[in-house]
Amino acid sequence: MFAVIKTGGKQYRVKENDVIFIELLEGKSGEPVFFNEVLMAGKGDDVETGKPDLKKVVEGTIVSQEKGPKLVIQKFRRRKNSKTRTGHRQLITKVRITAIKDA
Fold first, then answer.
1. From CA 56, how far away is CA 24, in angstroms rounded?
2. CA dihedral for 17, 27, 52, 103, sign (positive or negative)
3. CB-based contacts of 73: which residues, under 8 Å, 6+ apart?
4. pTM for the complete prediction?
5. CB–CB of 101/33 below 8 Å?
6. Rounded to the nearest 10 degrees, how much is the dihedral formed by the CA atoms of 51, 53, 56, 62?
7. Cα separation of 63 and 17, whole Å?
8. Which pLDDT tens digits describe the chain residue by residue (103 residues)?
9. Domains of the chain: which residue ranges?
10. What is the Cα 43 distance to its own chain's centre?
11. Hey, is 74 helix, strand or coil?
């Protein structure tokens, strides 16, 4: 069984025992997390879609709180002798999906 959930402005296709990296959630490792915005769920060709959400809940547990990969931002202005280089690391949460069930 799979589900499409929405969190942090993004959509993720998940199934049980998947590990996903999502934007930072409140909580410590080992705490449960519930995703109520389920857009689609199904098994094989049998698919349910919500308008806009389904009455399902996806459960997960927080594995860890981490920093994502470093993104390098470079700005260059030609003929101006002007260059800047900065970096950024987004805070992310590693979540293991434990169950997909009806609300």
1. 22
2. positive
3. 84, 85, 86, 87, 88
4. 0.83
5. no
6. 160
7. 12
8. 999 999 999 999 999 999 999 999 999 999 999 999 999 999 988 999 998 899 999 999 999 999 999 999 999 999 999 999 999 999 999 999 999 998 7
9. 2-65+94-102
10. 21
11. strand
Q: Which tokens go with 29?
A: 């490792």
8: amino acid identity, one letter: G
Q: What is the largest CA-CA distance in the chain?
A: 61
- Within 10 Å of residue 23's Cβ, how many Cβ atoms? 13
Which of 47, 33, 41, 32 lies closest to 12 in space, CA to CA? 41
Q: Is 78 helix (H, G, I), strand (E, B) or coil?
A: coil
